[in-house]
Here is the input.
Amino acid sequence: MYPPEEELIALLKKAGIDFVASLPCEKISVLLDMVSARFFHVPLTREEEGVGICAGAALAGRRTAMFVQSSGIGNMINALLSLTQFYSLPLAVFVSQRGVYKEKIAAQLPMGQRLPEILRGAGIAYSTISSRDDLIIAADKLPVVFENDELHIFLMNPAVWEGSTAKSSRPLDQRPVVCMVPEKRREISPPVLTRYEIIEILATSLENCVVVCNLGWPSKELYDLKDQPSHFYMLGSMGMASPLGLGISLSTEKEVIVIDGDGSLLMNPGVLATAAHLGPENLTILAIDNSSYGSTGSQETLTGSCVDLELVARGFGIGNTAKAATKEELLAATVNVRGGPKFIHALALPGNHDVPNIPIGHIAIRDRFREFLRGQEETRY
Here is the structure.
C-alpha cells in the first residue's frame, strides 16, 4: 500500500487541481514537499494573501487548493467570507489540524480544538479527515467544489500520516540569492493630483487590460471613468487587490494592472515578496498613495509619516519600480517601467471624487470578468 500522502495527491490530480498555495506545518512537511514538487506551487507569506491569490487564479479558470495549519484559518477567515464565498469562487483548503492529536505545543490547542465550532459559526462547509480511510471524503467532495463554485475546508488530523513511509524529495534550492538593495528615498514632486485624476489620466491605457481595483472609492471612481468587463471591482476584502491580481497574472498572458492603495498595501505587504519571488512579467501594481484611508473618513496612514512604498517594494525584491506625482511623471513611469513585476508608486492628494455606487452586483462583476478571461485568454501553465 502506498503512503497516504500519495493517495491524497492522486485525489488532487484526479479532481484537476493545478494551482496550490501553502504555508508550512511540521505535521505535513513531507506532504507539502511532495505537493510543491508536483503542482504549480505558490509559497505564501501569510494565509490571507493566499486566499486572494487563489481567488485570482480561480477567476482565470484554475482549480486551486491551499494547505495551511489550523492557526492560519484565523488569519484568513474574513477573506474567505468576503472574497471567496462572497463571489462564489471555488477553493479547497486542506488544514493540518493542530491541538487534537499528540500535540506538544500548548498554544496550538485553543484554535485547533475550537476550529470546527468557528467554521460552523462562519457558515463555512468543512469535512473532518480523521484517518486514512477518511480520504475518501476528499474524493467525494472535491468534484463538487469545482462544479458548484464552492468553498470547502478539509480538517486533517495528524493521525492520518502516522506510520507513513513517505520521504521528502525536496531538492536543495540552488538558485542564486539576489538581494535588492533599496535606494534612498527619491526626490520627487509633491502630489498635485487626486486619485480620481490619476485614474483619469491612465484610463485610455487600460483598454482591454485586466484591471483589479481596490475596494471602496477607488473602484467607484474607476467605474465612473471607464467601465469594462475586464475590470474586477473589489467590494470588500481590504488588502486583497494585489494578491488577487497576482493570482490572475500567474494564470493568463494578458496584461494585469492592479490599482491599489497605501492603506491596503500596508495591510498585506508580504504579497510584494511573493510577486518578486514568482516574477510574473505581465503584472503591474499601481500604488496610489494619498496617505489616507479614503473610504473610512480619510484617517492618515503611515505613508504620511515614515513609510515609502517604493522602497518597501524594492526591499521585498521588486526591481522595476518608479515614483510619480505629476501627470508627466506618471505617463513617463507607465512607459519606462518595463519587465515585471512592476511597481509604480503614485503620490496623490487625499480626497474622494463625488461618484455614485457601482450599480452592478458582485456576481455579475465576477461573471463578466470570467467571460472576458475565458474568451480572450490562454492559460500559461
Q: What stands out?
A: The chain has a mean pLDDT of 92. The chain has two domains: 4-161, 195-376. The longest helix spans residues 70-85.
